[in-house]
What does this fold into?
Amino acid sequence: MATKKTTPAHNATHNVAGGKKTTKKTEYGAKSIQVLEGLDPVRKRPGMYIGGTSLEGLHHLVWEVADNCIDEAMAGYGTMCHVKILPDNIVEIRDDGRGIPVEKHPTTKKSTLETVMTVLHAGGKFGGDDSGYKVSGGLHGVGISVVNALSEWTRAEVRRDGKIWMQEFKRGKPVKTVKAIGKTKRKDETGTMITFKADSQIFPDTNYSFDRIVKHLRQQAYLTKGMRITIEDLREVTGAKDQYKAKQHAFYFDAGIISFVKFLNRDKEVKHEKPVYIEKTVDDIYVEVSLQYTDGFKENLHAFANNIHNPEGGMHVAGFRSALTRVLNSYAKKHKILKEKETSFTADDAREGLTAVISVKLANPQFEGQTKAKLGNSEARSATSTVVSEALSEYLEENPNAAKAIIEKCLLTARARIAARAAKDAVLRKGALEGMTLPGKLADCSTRKAEESELYIVEGDSAGGSAKQGRDRHFQAILPLRGKLMNVEKTTIDKVVKSDTLKPMIIALGVGIGEGLNLEKLRYHKIIIMADADVDGSHIRTLLLTFFYRHFEELILRGHIYIAQPPLYQIKKGKAIHYVYTEEQKNALLKKLGVNENDIAGSEDDQKATGGIKIQRYKGLGEMNPEQLWDTTMDPVHRRMYQVTVEDAEAAQNVFELLMGSEVAPRRHFIQTHAKSVENIDV
It folds into this structure.
């Protein structure tokens, strides 16, 4: 009997009682206007201050406090920042800066410490001549007070004037006034220590990622020469005997962003041995740039303003890119490397294979949003452009071998771009003849609303057949993969668009590729990779993630790419059917059903029944009938899907670079390290 599939997201109806529009009048006057005082606006609308209450917002609390430590170091008053993650996800961050003042503030009539902790836009970074902050990251003045507002409790300890001062807060409200709790060991000892526990009323998940914190603070150490940053994770430590369980990292870099570029290119083949380094101050804007070209095809650029990461770039990035393209074209034409019949390098030609770190420091940065994703100062563009133009031109003239390697890389990219344009046009023309540019193997959905459409990219014909029969045809399209997927990280774009496996995918998405990419034409707002839950399936997912990361990164940034998670096992007891997705879930369910795991060893593959329990291990999607595939993996009500982030795709690409690259030693180390963790390999 066919199962009728209902999807609330697409078949919802809304009823109004009695079918009549209510016309009840409400009074709108002064009482209707709500006034939020103190830190109440932060708790009411946390997204306005930290970007959201997801894990990204949770970690933003750590960044805000750590930024204050780094600002002290940039101002010349501090040398270290020590971050601890304590049991119960309590965070402690300590520096050796000047320490927040504790005397009474002339405006608020409260202690300066309490003012900084409880008043928005109160801080020493608004340009006062005696503040000591010529440049800083936390210019909004909301950082520490926002952390206080969004924490279940906060404790501030200040070492200053020979004493240790302390004040505690609960959800942004002071518990008591500041008081001295002891004396410092040395009279000149100064610093601030902030300890806080994120509020579970605000954040659904308060579990910090040690790796994410390490990655962020490693960046900060690269950007702040001579500053020592240490991170400890003590969540598994319950006593002195468990100290070995503590995870810790310490960072200190004399070479700064040169070391950063080398780190980013550690597993890549570089075109010139030493990274280019540029450093100069123009119009009171300090510009620091390091860059190096690799044999890869993707740009890896990291931009910072006052040590704050700007993932969306900004004016300093625009100035860098315009200068880079201009200088490379000028050098290539001057030395007749670019032939007269060849067109000039485009900005994209200059970016391919480029690893760059751009860091500017300026007095009054204008960021877009509290998360500071983009720098808006126009003067940063002109300063960066001027510095890079002069220094890079000089570098190329003084280093002809490196210059030749860089220009030849750009020339190869330019020629591939021209070949790719011709190949892409041919692909699109052929696609149009095949019927509305859609490949024949695509089983499209009936709706034409992209926002409700889903495209399942499915491994293999058998799984594709089950998916086509089991799907909801209204909004789910199926594209089976046939043939071997190529590693796009080692392939030029003209070969990508000619690929028999990738070409149908490019056509189905509808946005084009390379030059002229138009995401407004995207035909499906959910693009779901559905592969087997085994080593081969993992391999295919990695290849596809690398493909999307390199050629359609914006689709990932906009949240359009997902990974479906099919179940590993079906477990039956009588008429009851259970699906489990991990070994841990299987063992927990069997225990709940009263079955000893040892009694069913070896029964997963041959489906023997033991104690009334029947276990089936799914080796592939093709083993599921259409109803099972719908129930477990495609039904929006019950399915499990993971939204892909740039970090996921970047990690996949890095692994593939490691495994497919020319360097043998890193690949051998990776395989030796992870070999023991690989199980259930199907040969």
Observations:
- Residues 569 and 580 are 5 Å apart (CA to CA).
- The radius of gyration is 29 Å.
- DSSP finds 21 helices and 23 strands in the chain.
- The domain at 257-415 is CATH 3.30.230.10 (Ribosomal Protein S5; domain 2).
